[in-house]
Amino acid sequence: MLLIWNRPGFTEGLSEQDRTALFGEVDEIMKELTETGELIGGQALANPSQTLTVRLVDGSPEVLDGPFMESKEQFAGYLAVDCDSPQRAAEIAARWPDVRYGGAMEVRPIMDEAGTEM
């Protein structure tokens, strides 16, 4: 799983040309991963301002507005890929354009049904 972390709204500060180039790069990577059969799926997430978080407060679950943590970067989406190695997944993540704009890509194996990866 490639977890996409970036600053919410960072694309609003880009020029139209830079925004178009960034989304073009994403399209190219997605096309490549589809052609190689490595792409399983993925999705962008809505703005963190629309987040609800459930936490235990005084022994009872409580629904709170907003993301679960305060930070500059927020979880923005994910890609699920089927790669030959963790190094290949990291190679894909390193090409993701958000990284150049202060974001990060977290590469994390998905557990199989047995959960032996714990």
From TrEMBL:
- Residue ranges of domain YCII-related in the record: 16-112
Q: Please give the SUPFAM superfamilies that the UniProt record associates with this protein.
A: Dimeric alpha+beta barrel
Q: Which InterPro entries does the UniProt record give?
A: Dimeric_a/b-barrel (IPR011008), YCII (IPR005545)
For this chain, the family text in UniProt reads: Belongs to the YciI family.
**Identification of the protein by name:** YciI family protein
UniProt organism field: Micromonospora parva
